[in-house]
Design a protein that fits this description.
binds zinc ion; four-stranded mixed sheet; 375 residues; alpha+beta; 30% helix
């Protein structure tokens, strides 16, 4: 969610009066898991379709205003109910010619322009997953959602060469381009750039794309659940939110695995690619750090992945300031405590092999850097 700050910094600076530059995080994220407060900035409302977030100067609060350019120029809306032309695994289509690893196998998708189709193959499952996690797509009433939906208002595909948002559209909007992988709180949309999705898929396979989509959907849930906005002038405030979003990725990956879309059992090739990528990402410690360390990101992924049933319930403990992503009327609600999970619905088989199996020293593993959840 790095770019969200760029989008909201201008208005945020008004609220904060510019007097806190260099302030330190007085309640830094826990070093082991990267848990902590959701942020010291204000909450940003999740505006309904046709509106976006702006600052009410008279009250110094963020409010929803009518959107004059509802469709981001150049971006293409992704369908969440399209029929996928590929049956089963979206990655490996043929044999491994060198016999030295599944990542050598020909890919099902072979060109960046096919990434729209790839995304539209995954999005229906992502919507199904979120519906299952919460029982519906309607936010719990105590969140007082203005949009009325747990899903982003749109999933937008940004074709190669397209750039938009920011000053070219309106100051309050997030900048998007073909490398975007971000949820934008000011307009409620997820932007997925063709070149970045292609790089992720080509280097690490489809599991990386599953991870990216669900990470950004996690940021959407955080906003709808009234998480506080990280103050851009306070170092490290985004880390708990980012680790929680990685936890959402683990929850979606195990859901997809249970449904047979991800190979975690036969050859495990999807997970091998993803694990190797997880070992290679993570922010460097310091004031500029916004995401978790490698160690924290791997832990976060497995918190969601190893959850017996509803993974995102188990992600709730990442916030320690009373913000909860679990409905208050859920028996699982226990902020800051180990959640109690409920039984799986009959449509989702109870997994038998979801032990944490972080592989060490993968022979023949890919060497490029994964970008699970850059945004
Ligand atoms: Zn993020």
């Amino acid at each position: 969610m790095r770019k969200r700050l760029a989008a909201l910094t201008a208005v945020g600076a008004v609220v904060l009066g510019g007097g806190v530059v260099g302030a330190s995080n007085t309640n830094p994220p826990d070093p082991l898991f990267g848990t902590g407060p959701s942020g010291s900035g204000p909450s940003v409302p999740d505006c309904p379709v046709g509106q976006f977030v702006t600052l009410d100067q008279s009250t110094d609060t963020f409010v929803c205003a009518i959107e004059t350019t509802p469709v981001p120029p150049g971006a293409v809306a992704l369908a969440t109910d399209a029929a996928c032309p590929v049956q089963g695994d979206l990655e490996v289509a043929g044999a491994d010619p060198d016999g030295d690893g599944p990542q050598e196998a020909p890919k099902t998708f072979t060109d960046p322009t096919q990434m729209k189709t790839l995304l539209e193959c995954i999005l229906p499952l992502a919507v199904e997953w979120m519906t299952w996690e919460y029982g519906s797509l309607t936010p719990p009433p105590e969140w007082q959602s203005e949009s009325g939906t747990l899903l982003p208002l749109n999933f937008y595909y940004v074709p190669t060469g397209v750039t938009g948002g920011g000053d070219s559209w309106a100051d309050e909007h997030c900048v998007y381009d073909d490398t975007s992988e971000q949820y934008c709180p000011s307009d409620g949309n997820i932007y997925l750039g063709e070149q970045q999705i292609w790089a992720d898929y080509n280097d690490h396979g489809d599991a990386d794309v599953y991870g990216t989509i669900s990470h950004e959907m996690g940021h959407r849930i955080q906003q709808v659940a009234n998480a506080h906005n990280p103050n851009p002038d306070v170092p490290n405030e985004e880390i708990p939110s980012e680790n929680m979003a990685d936890c959402f990725s683990g929850a979606f990956l195990v859901y997809a695995e249970r449904q047979g879309y991800i190979d975690a059992v036969a050859s495990g090739d999807d997970l091998i690619d993803l694990f190797v990528g997880l070992f290679e990402i993570g922010d460097v410690l310091g004031a500029e750090q916004t995401h978790g360390t490698i160690d924290q990101r791997i832990r976060a992924f497995f918190v969601g992945y190893n959850a017996p049933t509803r993974g995102v319930w188990d992600c709730d403990f990442y916030y320690t300031d009373g913000v909860t992503i679990v409905p208050l009327d859920s028996p699982d609600t226990a902020v800051g405590q180990t959640p109690v999970t409920t039984s799986s619905p009959t449509t989702v088989p109870v997994p038998t092999t979801t032990q944490s199996v972080i592989p060490a020293g993968q022979p023949g593993g890919p060497t490029t850097v994964a970008d699970l959840g850059k945004g």
